[in-house]
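Private note to self, pasted from the team thread so I don't lose it. C-alpha cells:
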C-alpha cells in the first residue's frame, strides 16, 4: 500500500514538473495503482510471490511510461528509485513471511 501511495505521489510530481498533461501516462499509473492494490490483498496469503510480481510490474510499467512520455520521467525519477529500493529491500522479509506461513499451515 505504501508503494501504491508513492506511485500516486510520483504522478503528481510529474504533472507539476511538466506543463503538458498525458492521458497515456495517467492511465498507466492508474493501472499500476489497481495492480498494486491487488498485490497488497494477495500478500496476506502469499507475500513473496506478490512482492516479486509487484516489483516486475513496477519495472515494466515504469519503462512503458518512460517510453510513452520521456519528459515525465524527470519529475518522478527520485520517487521511482525510492519505490524500487523499497520493493527490493522487502524481498527478504517477504520470503521469511512466506516460509512462516507455510510452516504454520503445515502444522
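Design output:
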Amino acid at each position: 500500500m505504501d508503494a501504491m501511495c508513492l506511485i500516486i505521489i510520483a504522478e503528481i510530481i510529474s504533472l507539476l514538473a511538466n506543463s503538458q498533461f498525458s492521458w497515456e501516462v495517467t492511465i498507466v499509473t492508474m493501472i499500476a495503482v489497481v495492480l498494486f492494490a491487488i498485490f497488497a490483498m494477495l500478500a496476506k496469503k502469499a507475500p513473496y510471490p506478490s512482492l516479486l510480481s509487484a516489483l516486475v510490474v513496477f519495472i515494466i510499467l515504469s519503462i512503458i511510461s518512460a517510453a510513452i512520455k520521456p519528459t515525465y520521467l524527470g519529475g518522478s525519477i527520485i520517487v521511482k528509485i525510492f519505490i524500487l529500493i523499497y520493493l527490493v529491500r522487502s524481498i527478504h522479509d517477504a520470503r521469511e513471511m512466506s516460509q512462516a506461513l507455510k510452516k504454520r499451515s503445515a502444522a
